[in-house]
């Protein structure tokens, strides 16, 4: 779909270089003015895919675009590594030190550093060549995304799988750091802490080395996913936006700088009757495209 007059763009989170607005918009969801038509498909920081299923160009937050007809190019120093001839790439996502590739048959491959479990192979070792994610074998995947040290994918049925580092709850799984922060806050304010809360603080996931099925409350299907440095954003099949993870710069869109390990609805778009079509996470900010929800037809007397 192409940008048109009904499409609106919004940004929130880190604005240190005016990425969202020239004004100080800390903690706010801001409507961005877009005057140039933009292709919504494959809207990411990772790559451009040609119609012949070859990776045309790829880049990361630290590199310029490098063009290629049949492989990928990595920076510092740039060098060419051809993809295997049997890999028909439709999407490529680049993290800080790893890559996640989706092929035309819905298979996921990953390679690079595995220090935080971001490759999803069950270990913390690195891989120099694309290796299939065996944990997702038999599950057709239609979208992938990569944060700095975490990864995500969406199945054709709309299920969300995530793996890698969970230090800030960016996987949507229990985070020890966040739970301990909550308990410290209650101790500082002398609020009572019950035994159940103490037990919950002992149930946490720091690194998830295999893909885990993530439950988003009240959502039957996920249509879009994007990973920031340590936060994640997802669009439901009904056009609602959910975010979770590190929120220090307001990149979660909840009007606070709080972090959370629970996928949480961004009320702004629902309250403004906006249907979210796509989402893209920067390292510490989030950008959303949305259209007004169709008004139900009025009943004739």
Automatic annotation (TrEMBL):
Annotated SUPFAM superfamilies: RCC1/BLIP-II
Known Gene3D superfamilies for this protein? Answer: Regulator of chromosome condensation 1/beta-lactamase-inhibitor protein II
A Pfam match: RCC1
Which ranges does the UniProt record give for the RCC repeats? 106-157, 158-238, 239-292
Name listed for the protein in its UniProt record: RCC1 domain containing 1
